[in-house]
Amino acid sequence: MKTILVAGGAGYIGSHMVALLAERGIDTVVVDNLCTGHQQAVKGARKTYIGDLRDGDFLDTVFAENEIDGVINFAAFSLVGESVTDPLKYYGNNVAGSISMLGAMRKHNVKRIVFSSTAATYGEPEKQPIEETDRTDPTNPYGASKLAIEGMLKWCDQAHGIRYAALRYFNAAGSNTDVTIGEDHNPESHLIPLVMKAALGQRSHIGIFGDDYPTADGTCIRDYIHVRDLVEAHLLALEYLEREDKSGIFNLGSGDGYSVKQIIESARRITGKEIPAKIEPRRAGDPSVLIASNKKAAELLGWTPKRGLDEIIADAWSWHSSHPNGYEG
Ligand code: UFG
Questions:
Q1: Contact 148, 242 (CB under 8 A)
Q2: What is the tens place of the pLDDT at every residue in 130-151?
């Protein structure tokens, strides 16, 4: 039986991946050190191994005990701000974890990996929408650590025939209301979950980080993509690697941009809550606009996002209103 190994399967996006694989009847094993993930978020994996990717003996056991056909690697630290103040934490975990994973794949002759990359590899974009061939010049160590891994993947493809799909995520949000899993970060720094917390009254207001950007309403524009659409692209990427026997880098975004103010407005309409907002200073390092071109993923993977902003916010609201304290209840 073909088995997919999901590293970081207890995290926000990884757990949605596991749920999709289960829905499709695909045998799945998870590895996670539960450093930021939640055991309760893993629904449908045959087995979960608790351990760290950087532990080579641990990974060896996982590969020896299962017939792994492909790897999807979500395991990483992902706080942009923290990466600036503690770069070694990011290189140490993200890059070293991937080195260890690629080493185990090489040893056990596993030839396919889907890797979670990020729009942060681009830094300040040259143009909109952003295409995969645009300049990559990260403005923080988080993006730099992911770009370093993309480089490593390229060389491992050449040297060892390990085919990879590096998926550059834009802004993932939403939840899976069928199996009831959602976003639970501590601390939370992302806009949509924080807006939900303001709607629940857990925060007095949502701070809008700057209203003097060169955009129509002065607030930053981002490309929000439903987490369920996002994980569907990973499955298509695995199929692409098998079918084409060729590596590739793909943006995963909707192709549409929404401002911070538009997100808050939509959330007010969908939740029926007032959601007080206050203009606050800009957050360092925020580009004014980030919108993906998703043409390449559409053409080569056959991926088209199906869920729009209203569904993203409605599903986020469903999760947060039923789990005001995340997985703690
Ligand atoms: N924002 C606010 N108030 C908040 C939180 C966020 O106004 O309380 C704004 C931000 O300034 C930004 C937008 O809302 O303009 C979205 O911010 P998020 O923190 O939700 O997401 P980012 O766009 O900063 O980050 C995302 C991913 C990162 C990735 C980055 C690439 O979450 O992992 O895109 O640039 F690195």
A1: no
A2: 999 999 999 999 999 999 999 9
Instruction: Say how far apart CA 103 and CA 113 lie, in whole Å.
Output: 12
Q: H or E stretch including 169? A: strand 163-169
Is 47 exposed, middle or buried (CB count within 10 Å of its CB: 0-12, 13-18, 19+)?
A: middle
Q: Residue 228 to residues 87, 95, 106, 255: CA-CA distances in angstroms?
A: 30, 26, 30, 16
pTM assigned to the model: 0.98
- Which tokens hold the place of 3? 């088995």
Alpha-carbon distance of 104 to 125, in angstroms, equals 35
Residue among 36, 80, 254 to mutate when testing ligand 1 (max atoms within 8 A of CB) = 80
CB-based pocket (< 6 A), ligand 1: 78, 80, 118-120, 142-143, 171, 189-191, 194, 206-209, 220, 222, 260, 283, 286, 290
Extract the tokens encoding 124. Answer: 């300040």
Q: What are the tokens at 63? A: 């590969």
**Collapsed DSSP state (helix, strand, coil) of residue 257:** coil
CA of 225 to the centre of ligand 1 (A): 13
- Residue owning the nearest CA to atom 4 of ligand 1: 191
Residues known to be catalytic: 142
Q: Which long-range contacts (CB under 8 A, 24 or more apart) does 147-150 make?
A: 147/117, 147/121, 148/91, 148/95, 149/94, 149/95, 149/98, 149/115, 149/117, 150/115, 150/117, 150/121, 150/249
Which atom of ligand 1 sits closest to the CA of residue 210?
7
221 CA → ligand 1 middle, Å? 9
Distance CA 40, CA 10 (A): 8
Provide the pLDDT confidence category of residue 163 given band limits of 50, 70 and 90: very high
